[in-house]
Design goal:
This protein is mainly β and about 425 residues long. The protein has 2 domains: about 190 residues, no CATH class; about 180 residues, TolB, C-terminal domain (Neuraminidase, 6 Propeller), CATH 2.120.10.30. Helix content is about 5%, strand content about 40%. The strands form 7 sheets. It has a 5-stranded antiparallel β-sheet, with no helix packed on it. Strand 22 and strand 23 form a beta hairpin. The protein is globular, with a radius of gyration of 20 Å. InterPro entries: 6-blade_b-propeller_TolB-like (IPR011042), Glc/Sorbosone_DH (IPR012938), Quinoprot_gluc/sorb_DH_b-prop (IPR011041). This is Glucose dehydrogenase. It comes from Devosia elaeis.
């Protein structure tokens, strides 16, 4: 499908096929980590894969037929998009409040509430200092299950420390005011990724509440060759999914709780840099993690399982060399449910269980920094049956399903340091 970039205050409807997008190989390695604007591929027809560009690793073969380049749906979903907020600071995440307003995080370390008219209120006070260099900053935000009673929220950020930084998860009470802003009270860092490392890449992260007193936290492996192998080490907090309670403690039945030397908070390991995560309709966690040149992965992390990075991976290094030994499968690691080569550069993810866009019911909607739009993944028995692209002509940093059944995408323009919020509905 092709959706043209919308001007503020306008809304256009489309139901046309469009060129798919692929990675821009002219980008520097640092830029490719989070994606550059893509080159356009050729026309992709219904029933054929949305991705039309050649893979970076053409000799690599999927482990099973449904693992990559799934066909598009037979009929594209007709959608309508509308820019509802623009010229916001460069955002990283958004979350709907019970009254329908949006709580958003800005990369440079601020938090705001955006009202139904698209206006941001005063900066919320009480946030800790963040390290906003590179891919750092103020990252994800999520509401506690009892938010309406407690006002409790969680947020992740690149925490500046002596000797470097690391991803941290904080808890706070959000006190709203009549001016459209508010303050954070009782701010407490409940979990910190260790070890500290002096870098500016691969912090993750996404927060996924999963019950009254449990949440998942995804973190990156910090990118650099000298430390990324720690994604395979149970004593390191790099390249993991953690499962913890609201106080930051390990859940009692976590897989490594009784393993000597292992971090008890670990749920799964061998991840690269996960910036997309959501629960499905059964309450199971799914993630999409960044690959290098090729190799973005959709996974359903299971307790104690190893997802391979950097020993087993699809795609190639930014230099063009094989990743590790060039191995895409072995008996000790899990295969991804699906992978992309070239990358989409995933950031943000929502499971759609509304009825306003019935074609997307039960699908995951993933933001694409490189694909500059939404990637809609339709599943059948936990395998990808089809993949749909909704171009937005902008880097998508976060995706949420709204209380009105619409899908909301946070876009970013790093060059200008600005963001917009786009509302996507079915075009009837």
């Amino acid at each position: 499908m092709k959706l043209s970039l919308l001007l503020a205050g306008t809304a256009l409807s489309f139901s046309l096929l469009a060129p798919a997008f692929a990675q821009d190989d002219a980008a520097t390695p640092e830029e490719q980590v989070e994606g550059m604007a893509p080159a356009e591929g050729g026309d992709a027809r219904a029933g054929e894969p949305a991705e039309t560009q050649p893979p970076n690793a053409p000799d690599q073969q999927p482990a099973f037929p449904e693992q990559t380049r799934a066909p598009q749906p037979a009929e594209p979903t007709p959608v309508r998009q509308e820019v509802i907020a623009q010229n916001l600071p460069q955002l990283w995440a958004m979350e709907f409040l019970p009254d329908g307003r949006m709580l958003v995080t800005a990369k440079q370390g601020a938090m705001y509430i955006v009202n139904e008219s698209g206006d941001a209120g005063p900066e919320i006070s009480g946030l800790p200092e963040v390290d906003a260099r590179g891919q750092g900053g103020l990252l994800d935000v999520a509401l506690a299950a009892d938010f309406q009673e407690s006002g409790r929220i969680f947020f992740s950020f690149a925490e500046p420390r002596e000797g470097g930084n690391g991803t941290a998860l904080a808890s706070a009470i959000l006190m709203l005011d009549e001016a459209g802003g508010g303050a954070l009270e009782d701010v407490s860092i409940i979990f910190s990724q260790e070890p500290t490392y002096d870098g500016d890449k691969h912090f993750g992260s996404r927060i996924v509440p999963a019950g009254d007193d449990m949440l998942y936290l995804t973190v990156g492996e910090r990118s650099d060759n000298e430390v990324r192998d720690q994604a395979q080490e149970l004593a390191s907090g790099f390249g993991k999914v953690f499962r913890i309670d609201y106080e930051g403690n390990a859940i009692a039945d976590n897989p490594f709780i009784d393993t000597e030397g292992a971090l008890p908070e670990i749920w799964s390991l061998g991840h690269r840099n996960t910036q997309s995560a959501a629960l499905d309709g059964e309450g199971r966690l799914w993630i999409v993690e960044h690959g290098a040149r090729g190799g973005d992965e959709l996974n359903r992390p299971e307790p104690g399982f190893n997802y391979g990075w950097p020993d087993v991976a699809y795609g190639i290094e930014y230099s063009g060399d094989p990743i590790g030994g060039g191995i895409t499968a072995d008996a000790e690691t899990e295969q991804p449910v699906y992978y992309w080569d070239p990358v989409i550069a995933p950031s943000g993810m929502a499971f759609y269980d509304g009825d306003a866009i019935p074609e997307w019911s039960g699908a995951f909607i993933i933001g694409g920094l490189v694909s500059t739009g939404l990637v809609v993944v339709h599943l059948d028995n936990d395998l990808v049956a089809s993949e749909e692209r909704i171009p937005l002509e902008a880097r998508v940093r976060d995706v949420r399903a709204g209380p009105d059944g619409a899908v909301y995408a946070v876009t970013e323009n790093p060059d200008n340091g600005t963001s917009s919020i786009i509302r996507i509905t079915r075009d009837s």
